[in-house]
Write a structure and sequence with these properties.
alpha+beta, FAD/NAD(P)-binding domain, D-Amino Acid Oxidase, Chain A, domain 2, 8-stranded mixed sheet, binds flavin-adenine dinucleotide
């Protein structure tokens, strides 16, 4: 039996459904677990392998668990989904409502433990470019989110209360003449694409958002159709809806069970089953990898025994969000974003030319202003971008930068210090699944007959979730797709 000696130093990460999530340091490595840890059994609930050291330790833990004879059960479903963030959950939902297939969803933790729990909730098109590959997926997703909100209404539920759904419209704001030219061009592009956007002068903008101060060159692009939601509430509703299929034997959740390896069929080359830390879950039709920023290293671990040359280069791109609870100093009527955000989001590891403004290198830590109010009257300020591995610790210097940046746009914030607000603030940290080429990976894994990936949505996973889910389900069922899947194909990750 493997003996593991671990020095455990728990550090609080986040709270979800009254469970505290902690991070544990163990000899230079990091594990994540729930608050209730049995120190005698050292029963870690899950670990994420960020590098070779992590992987080795994880394998030791796995070996130790196995030798402790954790009862392993086997069950069978048509579809097994790995990862229960917004992508995995909406893929599950689409299978449940769009077919008669049964679905199992596996997560190392719980849905909002990943990037999804930190999301600001913008369901936006204003920051996308009409005519580009992603435009169609964003537009389809936008439409599907609208349908989902409407269907809640038809079922007698208020979308505002249930998923925090608000058609507040989006404001992309700029302070300089150059930004103003850019915003005007954006409005024209959107209007040419048949989307009713408006260019707002300084005066018009002030009428919409009196608390905003941009200086005399300040202007904005406004898209009244853009929406926002509360990511955590949306997840809760989708989970609840999915669970309605459990009584029919069509749905099961395997939370706190990391996928550890795949059982591959020697005859078909497909995946027969997903092995988790506790169960063997057989799949009759498809396995979908939707583990956000963990998808790359997990794929590597799961398929390393095969001769596959696949490398999904998804990286964790850390983001902080600052929430000031019950904020009274001013009210926001719309969701806002500074126009520079778009460049930070699309920055590639090797900066490429962009017609949208200055070049940014994704390696550089960036903070750009996003601001909105949620349905509870909290001011939600974002956000940062950093490529610093799988670390999810709160960095106070980043929080300060978010606050300072927001104060450059909202003078009322300059009258307050962040220290005064310590008791009424919440910080959310999430790891966006970043793809260096700026596009998610959606589709079948070459050489694996029934294995699919849906990952790498960076800062747009909430926006793109429903279109992604529809795309995956159409592929598995052999239905004609609504959006061209080619730009997202997995084969671009084959060496
Ligand atoms: C600060 C911030 C603000 C954002 N704002 C917005 C926004 O306004 N609009 C928008 O569209 N997007 C936004 N995003 C981006 C969005 O949140 C992400 O793109 C999206 O949540 C990604 O979803 P996912 O399901 O792919 O990944 P995740 O939510 O990270 O889910 C992945 C899941 O995989 C699980 N997992 C990991 N390893 C394993 C394993 N071995 N076995 C099983 N499961 C495993 C994890 O536990 C996790 O639950 C924001 C992100 C951040 C960080």
């Amino acid at each position: 039996m493997a003996t593991i000696s671990l020095k455990i130093t728990p550090k609080f990460v986040s709270t979800h459904r009254n469970q505290n999530f902690y991070r544990y340091s163990a000899s230079n490595s990091v594990f994540y677990g729930k608050s209730v840890v049995d120190s005698k059994k050292k029963s870690f609930l899950y670990s994420f392998s960020a590098d070779e050291t992590h992987r080795n330790l994880f394998q030791q833990l796995h070996a130790a668990n196995t030798s402790r004879k954790i009862k392993s059960q086997s069950q069978s479903f048509d579809v097994v989904i790995i990862g229960a963030g917004i992508i995995g959950l909406t893929v599950a939902r689409q299978f449940l409502i769009g077919s008669d297939l049964s679905v199992a969803i596996v997560d190392a933790a719980v849905p909002c433990a990943g990037a999804t729990g930190a999301g600001q909730g913008y369901i936006w098109r204003i920051n996308k470019h009409p005519g580009t590959e992603k435009w169609d997926l964003a537009s389809r997703s936008h439409e599907l989110w609208g349908n989902l909100a409407e269907s809640l209404q038809h079922r007698g539920m208020d979308p505002l209360q249930t998923i925090g759904w608000m058609k507040t419209g989006s404001l992309l704001v700029g302070k300089t003449e150059d930004e103003s030219i850019l915003l005007e061009r954006k409005v024209k592009q959107l209007c040419d694409a048949g989307v009713g956007a408006e260019f707002l002068s300084n005066q018009e903008l002030l009428l919409k958002e009196p608390s905003l101060e941009l200086g005399k060159e300040g202007t904005a692009a406004f898209l009244p159709d853009d929406c926002q939601l509360d990511a955590q509430r949306a997840v809760a509703v989708i989970e609840k809806d999915n669970r309605r299929f459990a009584s029919k034997g069509r749905y099961a959740e395997f939370y706190h069970e990391p996928a550890t390896y795949l059982l591959r069929s020697s005859s078909t080359g497909g995946v027969d089953a997903v092995q988790t830390s506790k169960n063997t879950i057989f799949s009759k039709k498809a396995v979908v990898m939707a583990a956000g920023c963990w998808s790359g290293s997990l794929m590597h671990d799961l398929i390393k025994s095969s001769s596959s040359e696949l490398d999904i280069p998804v990286k964790p791109r850390k983001g902080h969000l600052l929430v000031i609870e019950n904020f009274k100093s001013f009210k926001l009527n719309h969701a806002l974003m500074e126009v520079g955000y778009v460049n930070h989001q699309s920055a590639s590891l090797q900066s490429t030319a962009s017609d949208a403004g200055p070049l940014y290198d994704a390696q550089t830590t960036s903070v750009s202003m996003t601001a909105t109010m949620d349905t509870s009257g909290n001011l939600v300020l974002g956000s940062s971008r950093e490529l610093v591995g799988f670390n999810t610790e709160i960095d106070e210097s980043i929080i300060n930068r978010i606050w300072q940046r927001a104060a450059e746009f909202f003078p009322a914030l300059r009258e307050k210090s962040l220290d005064e607000l310590k008791k009424s603030r919440e910080v959310r940290v999430g790891l966006r699944p970043y793809m260096p080429d700026g596009k998610p990976v959606i589709g079948p894994v070459p050489g694996w007959s029934n294995f699919y990936v849906a990952a790498g949505h960076e800062g747009e996973g909430l926006t793109l979730a429903l279109g992604t889910a529809e795309m995956i389900v159409d592929m598995v069922l052999g239905n004609p797709g609504k959006v061209d899947p080619e730009p997202y194909a997995v084969n671009r990750c084959c060496k």
